Amino acid sequence: MGRRDIQSLELKRNGFLSDSHSGLQWSLQDRNFHPGGGLFASVGQMGNNENGGLKLPYADLLVKYVSLPEGFKIFGMTEEEKGLMDKKKKNSGLKIKIKVSNPSLRRLISGGIAGAVSRTAVAPLETIRTHLMVGSSGHSTTEVFKDIMKKDGWTGLFRGNFVNVIRVAPSKAIELFVYDTINKNLSPKPGEQPKLPIPPSLFAGACAGESSTLVTYPLELLKTRLTIQRGVYNNLLDAFVKILQEGGPGELYRGLTPSLIGVIPYAAANYCAYDTLRKAYRKIFKQEKIGNIETLLIGSAAGAISSTATFPLEVARKQMQVGAVSGRQVYKNVLHALASILEQEGIHGLYRGLGPSCLKLVPAAGISFMCYEACKRILVEKDGDE
């Protein structure tokens, strides 16, 4: 059975709306609906209720208030009527616009919201990943999950998430702001020569990662300690005070070097992959605007590429942050950490937790980029901006 084609509606000069496929006729002048066009031989007969027409009220409001299905067209409409229908279609659906005139502030707000939403969505996976990296609750995702549920219940999966949000929101705000600003300024305009020998997104991503890490690293260390050392600290402030008392200000930056070293390739690869995939999408599909779902998928793919390439440095960083907790070895530097892990556990040790890490980082990257782009569309400079 073949596919049924949708027929166009034709608005004739005499004011009748007809469908040639079904034989239906609708008079916009007398508001009558006729189930069979062949039953009426003349204009005078059409619209006569005695001849079987069904009267529909408010047919004259069709153009103003009724949305026709996709594929239907009305011929013979005036330009004013067409404008009304186009405007109605364009304004359909809920659209929220908030005026923020400063472009830098728009980027910072968008980045902060994107970071908070994305990290909260994947908080349980972040907790499991951290335990796997330091081997504190088991050696597989299932073992860690069961151990957390047994000791702390569902709340244990979100342990440290508040601190994580406090850290990630400003971190992601700074990161996306720096990336967007540098990338826009360094990207050559059509016809211009490249300003850098490397892709601007690669350099912008590295700068973005370095900036956000330097500003928010102590919060990340506090979050890691709160997640791993159960019962040692009462809250964020208590952890901050005790760490200062035990190790001084330098303890808040333990593991900073591998973080700075690791964030350069990660952030550079992440943003470069994201920018490259967006350009490829526009070229292949010939669309300038990219929807939310497409942005989610592109951002997730970029996160998968960057996290896999730089994961060993992330493992070394986490173990250096934990320090001598539970009699663990204290590493001198990132090279010492990598060499020791490789010697004791082999290649597998450098990639312990990669599975749950990708399960966390991949959707987190996608959600973050999607929220950021969506927020930038909501926060506009003036009314009417898209």
From TrEMBL:
Its main location: membrane. One of its GO terms (biological process) is transmembrane transport. It comes from the Eukaryota. It is found in: Membrane. Pfam families: Mito_carr. It is a multi-pass membrane protein. One of its GO terms (cellular component) is membrane. Belongs to the mitochondrial carrier (TC 2.A.29) family. This is Mitochondrial solute carrier protein. It comes from Handroanthus impetiginosus. The lineage of its organism: Eukaryota, Viridiplantae, Streptophyta, Embryophyta, Tracheophyta.
